[in-house]
């Protein structure tokens, strides 16, 4: 069950945190994994870890906000693995300027960063892989999102939440367009993860029903299911992975 042998996967933003956990989990199930990151050294570190553990991985650094770079990276992956990308996990989502702050205090010049990486980044990546998935009659798209897409807060996340809300809507529509071709498209909305730090984080974690933050391993396991053959009837959905902090 959940065997991904013979499949190739591209995970964006996979050089650290949840993205690294996703790449490791997919490789452990037999997929050949492209470890993408904006920082080449991070991508190589995770790729080397996977290879040392007996998996197959290649580091390919590119910026998801650059459509030409995305297509070049996908082409490089095709050459490395000898096949098209079967599984895309668009995890990259936090730009250098996160745009955090109360909206009234934010210079408009800071508005674009979260939208470029989350919404346009997803568009660039999906555009680069969907044709070949549809032609092959099989494909998996997993978009990583956040609870902030649907739950408001006063933590200065309006730009990030707006970008995640936008990409969730995009994903729902794409699922309807490509479903007849054997391609599923889903969103995994994460709660607070272990890469966050600080007293406020500890206080929030204490209020989570499971009494802990999420881990890269938690995220990787959920993505493996969505990427598997067994998830062929799951599409157009947003799944919450948050330890019960928000229920639906």
TrEMBL record:
Keywords of this entry: Oxidoreductase
Keyword set includes Oxidoreductase: yes
GO molecular function: oxidoreductase activity
InterPro entries: NAD(P)-bd_dom_sf, SDR, SDR_fam
Record keyword Oxidoreductase present: yes
Lineage top rank: taxon: Bacteria
Pfam families in the cross-refs: adh_short_C2 (PF13561)
Family affiliation: Belongs to the short-chain dehydrogenases/reductases (SDR) family.
Protein name: Short-chain dehydrogenase
Source organism of the structure: Amycolatopsis albispora
């Amino acid at each position: 069950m959940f065997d991904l042998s013979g499949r190739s996967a591209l995970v964006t933003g996979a050089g650290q945190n949840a993205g690294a956990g996703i790449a490791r989990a997919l490789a452990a199930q037999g997929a050949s994994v492209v470890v993408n990151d904006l920082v080449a050294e991070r991508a190589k570190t995770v790729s080397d870890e996977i290879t040392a553990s007996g998996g197959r991985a290649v580091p390919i650094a590119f910026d998801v906000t650059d459509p030409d770079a995305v297509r070049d990276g996908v082409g490089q992956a095709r050459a490395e693995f000898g096949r098209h990308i079967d599984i895309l996990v668009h995890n990259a989502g936090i730009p250098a300027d996160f745009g955090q702050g109360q909206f009234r205090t934010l210079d408009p010049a800071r508005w674009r960063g979260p939208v470029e990486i989350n919404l346009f980044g997803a568009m660039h990546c999906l555009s680069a892989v969907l044709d070949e998935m549809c032609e092959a009659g099989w494909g998996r798209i997993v978009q990583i999102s956040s609870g902030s897409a649907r739950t408001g807060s006063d933590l200065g996340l309006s730009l990030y939440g707006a970008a995640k809300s936008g990409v969730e809507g995009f994903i729902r529509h794409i699922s309807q367009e490509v479903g007849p071709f054997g391609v599923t498209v889903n969103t995994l909305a994460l709660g607070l993860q272990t890469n966050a730090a600080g007293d406020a984080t500890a206080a929030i974690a204490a209020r989570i029903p499971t009494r802990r933050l999420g881990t890269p391993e938690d995220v990787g396991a959920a993505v493996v299911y969505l990427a598997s053959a067994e998830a062929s009837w799951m599409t157009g959905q947003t799944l919450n992975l948050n330890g019960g902090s928000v229920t639906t």
